[in-house]
Design a protein that fits this description.
Immunoglobulin-like, 95 residues, globular, four-stranded mixed sheet, single chain, mainly beta, EfeO-type cupredoxin-like domain-containing protein, five-stranded mixed sheet
Length: 95
Amino acid sequence: MEDFNMTTAKQNVNVEVAGGYNPERVELQQGVPATITFNRTNAQGCLDVVHSTDLGFNTDLPLNQPQTVTVPTDKAGEFSFSCGMDMFFGKVIVK
């Protein structure tokens, strides 16, 4: 039986960007390195950028080209992300 090693554990969540974010709510475990991969599959305007002041990223989302951002998980809480015009929102929950 293999021991579970927290130093090698990782979390990745895929979010489809098409008329909004799917899923809109991402849950992550505190203290485990995490990434979110955004994939924009619809050419709708302002969703070509995703940003989060709370989580420290601002990323262009070219159509059909997945983009991965690193998410800090050092503290628990709810953190928002949104499109470039702050019209579409999502939430990261670190537990």
